[in-house]
Every structure is written in structure tokens, then in C-alpha cells.
Structure to design on (225 residues):
């Protein structure tokens, strides 16, 4: 949906930054290519955003990461590469085909032992993780169906602890937060999540706007308190 608003200058600068600063390794490049080869949508985070996730995992000292929305594992690999030896990442994906492609990419990245891909609607997986009584997650990345963004924020609080870092992708959605008629499916979900973030007693957050290969968008960053 973003192509028509993507300015060439943004993309050229992003490519320059990717090559000069971010330089994704072969496993990451393979993840993007494999998604294209499999006919999956090119909706993984931009490389500079992936590297930001990697840095945020490092900065927070996270050992347990939860991801909602795997696709081909591009963001998964960025985050798993930042984990310590005993780190674990659980990622939720409801399309088995996406999970298969991601599994191959994660294994090829040498991260197979750290990453668990759970297939099914994320709301069911999150409820299962809760009832299993797992250790709290230190870092949560939300990037799946936008209708459930507010519910995913609530789950991030419930499955986290004070100090857990939460990142929510697609928080601006080409400005649809001000004009839901642009996208009547996703915009209301994003707006609902931002309203919740602004008033949630256990979330302290902000939103950063972005431009580049993924058009005009942004991400929310929050701390569980
Ligand atoms: N985080 C990925 C991109 C995820 S795209 C990256 O940056 O590389 C969104 C993914 O969420 C898609 O693979 C889609 O199949 C999945 N998804 C959509 N709705 C879902 C749901 N209800 N439960 C779990 N996964 C879902
Ligand atoms: C879409 C989903 C995303 O998570 C994203 O970052 C960009 C686009 C989409 O469903 O169109
Ligand atoms: Mg996204």
C-alpha cells in the first residue's frame, strides 16, 4: 500500500545507509530474497529498522524475546543475533508457509537452537504461553495483524515485567492514524493501540515516524512499568 508515497530520495538514502552502516549479513539478505522467491509480501522491516531492533535487544540486555508476526524471519534473525548464548526468542506466525520459510532462514543463520516458531493465531499462542507459566519476556516486538495491536500490547504487559521493552511496528501507517478512511481494516486497530499506549498505567511510550523503502510509517517504543 505504500509504493505511491515512497519518495526516491528516501530509498536512495536508505540504500546508502544500509550499505555504509547497517550491512546486513548473508543470512539476513537470504531471508529477504527467500520471501520474494516464495511470493510473500515485501513487508519485513527495513534493514536500518532491523538493526535498531538488534541494538535495542542488546541495550536492554534481553535474554527472552517475544515476536508477534514472523514472515520470513528477517526481524527474527536481527533480534536473535543480539541475544546472549542462553537467549531465547519465541515468534508467532499463523501461516504455516511463512513459518516454513522462516524456519529455513533461521536455521541457515545458525540460530535454530535459539528460535522457536509457534504456528497459529497469535492470540491463541500468547494465551498458551501465559498458561504455560513461562519466565517473563524482556523484549516484545509486535508486527502482525494491526486489528489486534491493542490486544498484543496488553499481552506484552501480561507476559513481560516492569522494565520489558516493547516495540510496535507500523504505528503511523502513511498517516492513517489521522484518516482511518485510508484503511478501514488496519487504521482503527493502530489508532486503538496508540490510544491505549497513551493512557495505559503500565506502559510508558513514544512514537517515531520513519520514511524509506517502506514508505511513510513509524514505530512505537514503550517500557513496561
Ligand atoms: N516481523 C516481520 C514481518 C511480519 S509481517 C519482519 O519484519 O521480518 C506480518 C506477519 O504476521 C505475516 O507473516 C502474517 O502472516 C503474520 N500474521 C498476521 N496475522 C497474524 C495472527 N493473527 N497471528 C500470527 N501471525 C499473524
Ligand atoms: C504490512 C504489514 C507490515 O507489518 C508492514 O510493516 C508493512 C505492511 C501490510 O500488511 O501491508
Ligand atoms: Mg510491520
Amino acid at each position: 500500500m505504500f509504493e505511491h508515497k515512497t519518495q526516491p530520495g528516501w530509498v536512495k538514502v536508505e540504500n546508502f545507509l544500509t550499505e555504509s552502516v547497517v550491512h546486513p549479513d548473508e543470512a539476513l539478505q537470504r531471508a529477504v530474497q527467500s520471501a520474494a522467491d516464495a511470493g510473500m509480501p515485501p513487508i519485513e522491516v527495513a534493514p536500518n529498522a532491523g538493526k535498531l531492533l538488534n541494538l535495542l535487544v542488546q541495550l536492554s540486555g534481553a535474554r527472552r524475546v517475544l515476536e508477534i508476526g514472523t514472515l520470513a524471519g528477517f526481524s527474527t534473525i536481527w533480534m536473535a543475533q543480539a541475544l546472549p548464548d542462553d537467549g531465547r526468542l519465541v515468534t508467532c506466525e499463523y501461516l504455516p508457509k511463512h513459518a516454513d520459510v522462516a524456519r529455513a532462514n533461521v536455521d541457515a543463520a545458525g540460530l535454530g537452537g535459539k528460535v522457536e516458531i509457534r504456528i497459529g493465531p497469535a492470540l491463541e499462542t500468547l494465551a498458551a504461553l501465559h498458561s504455560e507459566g513461562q519466565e517473563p519476556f524482556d523484549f516484545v516486538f509486535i508486527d502482525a495483524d494491526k486489528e489486534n495491536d491493542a490486544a498484543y500490547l496488553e499481552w506484552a504487559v501480561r507476559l513481560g515485567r516492569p522494565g520489558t521493552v516493547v516495540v510496535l511496528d507500523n504505528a503511523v501507517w502513511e498517516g492513517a492514524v489521522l484518516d482511518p478512511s485510508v484503511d478501514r481494516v488496519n487504521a482503527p486497530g493502530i489508532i486503538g493501540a496508540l490510544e491505549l499506549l497513551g493512557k495505559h498505567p503500565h506502559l510508558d511510550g513514544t512514537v517515531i515516524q520513519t520514511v524509506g523503502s517502506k514508505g511513510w510509517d513509524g514505530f512505537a517504543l514503550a517500557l513496561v512499568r
